[in-house]
């Protein structure tokens, strides 16, 4: 009965009673197959996008399906013109199943118009339903902070080398994007002088990807990244800060810094600045990057991103003793006298010039994880490439988008057979070898582009926007060809594609600049010199005689050199101990099992301090002694200040009740007497005064 009524009713309307499914997909077979799987028992029709206004397209679709009743209208938002989407709303406003550029689907309905609007705006489906934490009664999807860690052992530590911790948002291998390249080579160069401890967020790293970095690192502490589940707009801090804020990582850094007595901490990227340390490496000035976006888009969202980053970043750089910038422009923008320019570099031993082959092959390299590279690709593919494609029928374009490049791009690979879009490429050097011209169409950028440096080292001519080659010292027409509009960029590519001598002249000049300024070995020495300066400053701060406003006191010794003790020092340590009857009389060889620090003056050990960690955040001073000839010169104070800086927490010690000079020194350093241990010392028997201080 129901079926008869249905046929009678739709017969009156002039339509078939059985609903059909229409899919508007620009050649996307995956979407068509997905729709057939979802609704297998209906007749399916597939349409390609049509030209014209929404009304014109609607009339054409209405004519085609005059006798059909549409039960579902599937639309792919990638590749379809706005007119097609508008026509779909006119034809079946309540039956639209939209597929976004990531392959996600959402039923567009007025009942959930906000979610539908966000989906049309390109917001990923898993973020549409997020609620800020301050709406906690309605929040279901909460952030997750993994705590399981993995500790890798690398090369052996040495008492001769100072220890440096490096905190990174990712493991710097494979070398799939510019940030990984810089961190990898900085670790390699630091390891020439220091023991390096790497702290990084890493997941699913293969063993062969870990081994190259562990050649340089003493230890690597790896932790899964947090799963941050807050809307991007909802916090006063930039969302990138919270995406990498992990209580487990903070505790691991604290524990390893105390256990391994790390001398310095270097932070990679501004959004890791909350972990604190001594050196902040600004891979780019992020508020400058978002400022460029704000000036182009002029939207409230763009202003909000810029304001949050400007507020956070300017405050963050003030908390570090040194800030590393990639260029002079970046250093000026940061506005701090502590900024030091240590630019990006290139491995000149690996990226060596080879003869350019015949052809018209263009190369674009840039990880799509970094949104300016996505915008650069869309600018080139959408506005520049169409101007070149018909003019040069033999020209090809290779794009290296990095891991999951298509996901970050938000669309399928281009259908153009002359465009090759690659994701992760383990070794990009062969791509440079086969290329005739490298394009850097970056519209927004901060810092310096490593892809331009690699092209310079490989002696390949570069066509770039002004921002794409900023900070590299390149000159238009001499070592690079600069073009900023789509028309200018296309003409620049066209000119260089047809002028091999000009390409070679630009490429040779660029290679010379890379050799002069951007060799990683030279840059590594600058980085090591920076850390040495910080260690010397810290040592000077621990030396009271150098803190006097009037300069060094008359007859005072030079500031001591503080370092870890080694086996070769034990004879001298034992000699100082024997000359100090008030000190504990241990067998010197036992000190190597603990933290032994010595103070050298004019190349000779004049004092030593031994400590050990008795519990997390709790340190005991086992022994402290100074050569009688060097007493009252600030050496004991320098050693105490040094160990308290390196190992935050509570410090305990025992001192003979009769040793009034030592008790007075410890009180000046902030220790307070908290107890008495009768008969603690022998020869002669005497009570010990227990003293305690908390170090930050």
Short recap of the structure:
The protein has 4 domains: 2-129, 3-Layer(aba) Sandwich (Rossmann fold); 150-341, 3-Layer(aba) Sandwich (Rossmann fold); 361-518, 3-Layer(aba) Sandwich (Rossmann fold); 553-695, Gcn5-related N-acetyltransferase (GNAT) (Aminopeptidase, 3-Layer(aba) Sandwich), CATH 3.40.630.30. It is built from 23 helices and 26 strands.
Helix content: 25-40%
Overall number of structural domains: 4
β-sheet strand percentage: 15-25%
Structural class: alpha/beta
CATH class of the largest domain: Alpha Beta
Give your account of this protein's structure.
The chain is α/β, with parallel strands linked by helices. The protein has 4 domains: 2-129, Rossmann fold; 150-341, 3-Layer(aba) Sandwich (Rossmann fold); 361-518, Rossmann fold (3-Layer(aba) Sandwich), CATH 3.40.50; 553-695, 3-Layer(aba) Sandwich (Aminopeptidase). The protein is built from 23 helices and 26 strands. The strands form 4 sheets. It has an 8-stranded mixed sheet, with helices on both faces. A 7-stranded mixed sheet has the order 20-21-22-23-24-26-25, with helices on both faces. It has a 6-stranded parallel sheet with strand order 16-15-14-17-18-19, sandwiched between helices. The N and C termini lie far apart (83 Å).
Which features does this protein show?
23 helices; Rossmann fold; single chain; eight-stranded mixed β-sheet; 4 domains; 26 strands; 696 residues; seven-stranded mixed β-sheet; alpha/beta
């Amino acid at each position: 009965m129901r079926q008869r009524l249905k046929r009678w009713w739709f017969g009156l309307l002039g339509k078939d009673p059985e609903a059909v499914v229409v899919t508007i997909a620009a050649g996307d077979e995956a979407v068509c197959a997905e729709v057939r799987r979802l609704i297998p028992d209906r007749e399916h029709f597939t349409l390609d996008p049509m030209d014209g206004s929404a009304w014109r397209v609607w009339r054409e679709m209405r004519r085609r399906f005059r006798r059909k009743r549409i039960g579902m209208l599937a639309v792919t938002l990638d590749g379809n013109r706005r007119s097609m989407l508008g026509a779909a709303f006119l034809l079946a406003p309540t039956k639209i199943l939209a597929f976004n550029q990531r392959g996600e689907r959402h039923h567009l309905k007025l009942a959930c118009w906000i979610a539908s609007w966000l989906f049309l705006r390109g917001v990923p489906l898993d973020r549409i339903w997020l609620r800020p934490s301050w709406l906690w009664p309605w929040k279901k999807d909460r952030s997750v902070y993994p705590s399981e860690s993995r500790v890798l052992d690398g090369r052996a530590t040495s008492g001769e080398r100072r220890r440096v911790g490096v905190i990174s948002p990712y493991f710097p291998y494979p070398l799939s994007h510019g940030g990984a390249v810089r961190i990898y080579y900085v670790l390699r160069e630091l390891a020439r002088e220091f023991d390096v401890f790497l702290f990084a967020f890493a997941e699913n790293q293969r063993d062969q990807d870990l081994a190259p970095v562990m050649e340089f690192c003493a230890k690597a502490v790896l932790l899964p990244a947090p799963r941050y589940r807050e809307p991007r707009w909802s916090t006063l801090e930039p969302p990138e800060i919270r995406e990498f804020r992990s209580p487990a990582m903070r505790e691991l850094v604290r524990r390893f810094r105390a256990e391994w007595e790390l001398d310095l901490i270097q932070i990679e990227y501004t959004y890791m600045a909350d972990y604190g340390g001594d050196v902040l490496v600004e891979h780019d000035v992020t508020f400058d990057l978002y400022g460029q976006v704000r000036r182009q888009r002029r939207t409230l969202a763009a202003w909000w991103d810029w304001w949050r980053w400007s507020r956070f970043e300017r405050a963050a750089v003030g908390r570090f003793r040194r800030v590393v910038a990639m260029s002079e422009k970046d250093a000026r923008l940061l506005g701090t006298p502590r900024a030091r320019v240590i630019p990006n570099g290139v491995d000149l031993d690996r990226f060596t010039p080879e003869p350019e082959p015949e052809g018209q092959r263009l190369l674009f390299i840039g990880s799509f994880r970094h949104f300016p590279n996505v915008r650069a690709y869309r600018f080139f593919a959408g506005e520049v490439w169409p101007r070149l494609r018909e003019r040069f029928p033999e020209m090809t374009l290779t794009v290296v988008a990095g891991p999951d490049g298509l996901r970050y791009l938000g669309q399928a690979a281009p259908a153009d057979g002359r465009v090759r879009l690659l994701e992760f490429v383990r070794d990009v050097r062969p791509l440079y070898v086969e290329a005739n011209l490298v394009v850097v169409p970056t519209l927004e950028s901060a810092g310096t582009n490593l892809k331009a440096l690699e092209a310079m080292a490989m002696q390949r001519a570069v066509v770039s926007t002004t921002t794409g080659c900023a900070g590299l010292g390149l000159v238009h027409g001499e070592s690079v060809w600069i073009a900023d509009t789509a028309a200018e960029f296309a003409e620049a590519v066209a000119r260089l594609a047809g002028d091999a001598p000009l390409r070679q002249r630009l490429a040779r000049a660029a290679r010379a600049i890379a050799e002069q300024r951007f060799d990683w070995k030279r840059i590594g020495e600058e980085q090591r010199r920076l850390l040495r300066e910080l260690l010397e400053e810290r040592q000077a701060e621990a030396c009271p005689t150098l803190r006097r406003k009037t300069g060094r006191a008359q007859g005072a010794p030079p500031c001591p050199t503080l370092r870890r003790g080694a086996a070769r020092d034990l004879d001298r340590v034992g000699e100082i101990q024997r000359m100090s009857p008030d000190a504990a009389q241990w067998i010197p060889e036992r000190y190597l099992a603990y933290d032994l620090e010595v103070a050298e003056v004019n190349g000779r050990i004049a004092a030593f301090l031994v400590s050990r960690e008795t519990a997390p955040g709790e340190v005991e001073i086992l022994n402290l002694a100074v050569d009688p000839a060097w007493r009252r010169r600030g050496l004991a104070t320098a050693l105490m200040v040094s160990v308290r800086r390196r190992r935050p927490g509570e410090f305990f010690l025992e001192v003979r009740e009769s040793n009034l000079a030592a008790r007075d020194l410890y009180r000046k350093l902030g220790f307070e007497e908290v107890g008495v241990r009768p008969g603690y010392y022998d020869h002669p028997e005497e009570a010990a005064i227990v003293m305690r201080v908390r170090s930050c």
